[in-house]
Amino acid sequence: MAKESDILKIVKEDILEVVGRKNKRTPLKFMKLEVTVSHSFVSKAIKELEEEGLVKVSSEKRPWKEYIQLTKEGQVRANVIIKKHSVLEKYFKERRSKEEAIEATNILEHYISTEVIDTIKKLSTFKKKGIPLTEFKQEEGLIANINLNIGLFERVISMGIYPGEKIRITDKIPNGIIIEIKNKKFALDKDIAKEIKVLEYEKS
Amino acid sequence: MKNLKILLIGQPNVGKSSLLNALVGPRVTVSNYPGTTVEVTKAKKKINNTEIEFVDTPGTYSISDRSEEEKVTERALFEEEADGAIIIADAISLERSLYMTLQILEAHVPTVLALNFVEDTKKRGIEIDYEKLEKILHIPVIPMNPLTKKGIDKLVDTVLKIKKISKRIFTVKYDDDIERAINKISSQIKKTSIPKRFIALRVLEGDEDFHKYLKDERVIGDAKESLKDHPKVAEDISITRYGTASFIAEKVTQITSLGKEKIGKEKFEEKIDRVLLHKTWGPLTTGLFLFAIFGILLYLGNLIQGVLMSSTEILLSSFGAVEHSIIAMILVQGLTGLAAGVSIALPYVFLFYLLLGLLEDIGLLSRFIVNAERFLKKLGLPGKSFIPLALGLGCTAPATRATRVLSSKKEQFHTASLFAFVPCSSRIAIIMGIVGFYGGIKLAFSVFATLLVAGLIWAFGIKKVIHIKSEPLLLELPPYRKPLVKNVLAKSWIRMKDFVYIVMPLLVIGGIAYGILEILGLTNIIVGPLSPITAWLGLPAVTIIPLAFGFLQKDLTGAMLLSVLGSKISLALTPLQIYTFGIASTIGIPCIIALGMFIKEFGFKKAVALTVSSIIYGLLFAGLVWRIVSIF
To answer: What is the interface pTM, i.e. ipTM, of the complex?
Structure first.
């Protein structure tokens, strides 16, 4: 069972996302949330968001004319959520039909922590762009995708060679390539290395 | 008195054997698990009123049973009926250790997580919140260091209470579709002590060994139906498991500062690696190291051998003088066999394993494997075959067991067939002691060279016939470390055990068998019928006795040759004949003990076929070489 605080968190994120997507002030009555919760939850969530300085609610004489607007900080937060959402959608779209994807994303996004999403994000957005490790010219990069038969795939994964990890090429040897991931060194066969797709590492 | 059985599980180079040492202390007897050499080691320790038996499993990264190491670990997990497991985790790459931890938790094995290399982590400016990790996983997490013994007492205390570890442990949540498939399969599982969820996962991961737990295998098809969006469900499971592991690891680690101290050391190690893995310097240093080991062995081995030989000879002569009954004579033959084993093989084999263990612990062995892989690959062999092949220079029998480090039976057999050309200590003794002593060192080296050529031709031939795709290079290169002498000694002893308990008794039996045949005058029977062989080899007919009966006891080949030809071998045989004898007696599966080992590993038919064909090949080769050389 979800606790009240969890639900509140979901509602708050949902509000930020909906308002953030519209990118302007939104009349409260037109705000269509994706989660269906009681009104009291919504108002409580808005109140908390206001206290946190993420949204501003205009005070009108007539309550149905009230509108909600994101603060600068709120916009930043909303952008993160929207990005997260689209990344997940993309990830699941590869496997499911569109409606199902949107549905699954909605349920999942609030529960998977940003960390796991980060990994998945790297997986889905980078999948196509990677270049084979054997052709990679830079010293450092990010692993985008690994494409091996399941036996080797799991071996490679369990050794810590995982999509999203930073990879450093320390040496090229006649029969393969020496790499370093998280301070661990590996000797990889060229046949394995060419199935590991790598992206240029962008320093943030 | 209570009994506890605890498995030690961890990745390679995570400090498992040091922990075993720290846990049980030096006095304990370390014994080898029968049947497996990719090795399960057991050691017992009494604490308070409980006897804990630790079962040390081979280092693996997962328990998914895709390599022999994983199979052994997995088997230990389910067949040892252990009360729990200690997982040794590497604090430096926590997520990787957690991957296997999550897998073992899926199997519902009560687990204690022992974190090693905590100090190193701190030096790198990384803090791990152990309590948080405990809370997430619901299992005890104990930072420790087996070298300084820090945390060991606490670990033992926790292990004593392992049965009280809560059953409510962390479970990896998979994608909804996968969870549905897990539930579907779980509903069709027979009654067993293994958790249903674990079996379902293993089935989905494509492990056919677990199909036997299903009531109806058709459920797999059903489950796969709902997994249309997961064409690679096994991959998705691994990815999610690792994702969860890295998520947990990130949750509990905090980077406090950038460690500077280690950078210098790492740069230095990188420089060493650049040399050791260099395209020319790498193989060169590997070769030099092997030669140096050989040199040390021949020198020290000879030294020890001299002392042992003279003392056993005194013993034997005093024994032989007492009585001249037939039984005494047979006994003397048995003892001669034993003496040959003890004095030739023992020092040599043990020294060899000791040096190899040192190289392994320092971290050099994995670099050598990488270099050797370049050449082994050309022969159709995986890089890992370097280990059994190198061990073959000690004794063929234990080396045959060591082929289990390779992942397929085909690879194992292919590697093992090369033992026909990798001279073991007894064969090196023939080459050095007979060919070298009576024909000169140059002649001895040309025998070694001939073995190499014959072996290469054989290997290429086999590669052409049985087309096997050898496993690609995928090897972790551990950081260089100072070797722990205690560990190295223990490891060498484990490897020696095969030799002492299997090979040595058989050496005695071989000696006795030869003694009986000789007393009965049966040895001469074969001289006539087998004279075509000696004729082909251009050797005196009586030399068939050492050639044939050497198979019973290789170490006696020299003594047999002396007894049939008299002590003036250099007069009885020309240098070319000595050389031919050297080749004919060293190519081929060397002895009945090795044959026995082969039967055990590969079955009767394959073992006999290989032995016979390798010996025929050796005889043909020796005869051909002799003819070619005599043309010039």
So the answer is: 0.81
